[in-house]
Specification:
By secondary structure, this protein is an alpha/beta fold. It is 22% helix and 20% strand. The strands form 2 sheets. It has a 4-stranded mixed beta sheet. Strands 1-2-3 form a 3-stranded mixed beta sheet. The radius of gyration is 18 Å and the shape is elongated.
Length: 176
């Protein structure tokens, strides 16, 4: 069952084994973070004898989902699973709040500033503030003296920033 918040490793031994196989798959765009730590892996369970893995894309048009699905399929086959299914679920929508602390640290160590703040969820209209943005901490030197170069980074999930202290450019994983 897919729920809001960080997914939990299943309690049952058989389901944990299934989860652990899928949890080892790296994100193809950011290979230092697993799909579990990124929050894409949502559930692992069985329907009768069918192993089911549930994943949620970071956004509905994410081009990496086909690659991720294929990687999960290959890992399951390698582990001896013959009857399995990978379900892609869009509701609830993925949020950066689902990235684990380990995932955030891996992003930082890789040179990508992890999301800062919480995603806002509302069923009513949301007031957009286009004024002052929060200071993004440089993952290279830890300085808050950074500036946004462009809201469009190497992937749709990221913005490109530059540090005024160490002069290094870096990606920032946007909150959403």
């Amino acid at each position: 069952m897919v729920t809001e918040g960080q997914a939990q490793r299943p309690a049952g031994e058989k389901e944990r084994k299934l989860w652990d196989i899928a949890a080892q798959i790296p994100d193809p765009e950011i290979p230092v973070i697993s799909i579990a730590d990124l929050g894409i892996l949502r559930d692992a369970y069985f329907e009768a004898d069918t192993a089911v893995i549930t994943i949620t894309p970071t956004y509905s048009g994410c081009p990496a989902m086909g690659h991720i699905t294929n990687d999960i399929e290959m890992a399951l086959m390698k582990a001896g699973y013959e009857d399995f299914r990978i379900d892609t679920v869009l509701n609830p929508a993925w949020t950066t709040d689902w990235i684990t602390e380990t995932g955030r640290e891996n992003l930082r160590n890789y040179g990508i500033a992890p999301p800062q703040g919480k995603a806002e969820r509302s069923s009513s209209p949301v007031l957009l503030t286009l004024g002052k943005r929060p200071r993004i901490v440089c993952p290279q030197c830890g300085s808050e003296d950074t500036k946004e170069i462009t809201a469009f980074g190497s992937t749709a999930c990221k913005a490109l920033y530059s540090c005024n202290s160490c002069f290094e450019p870096f990606d920032y994983f946007k909150v959403h």
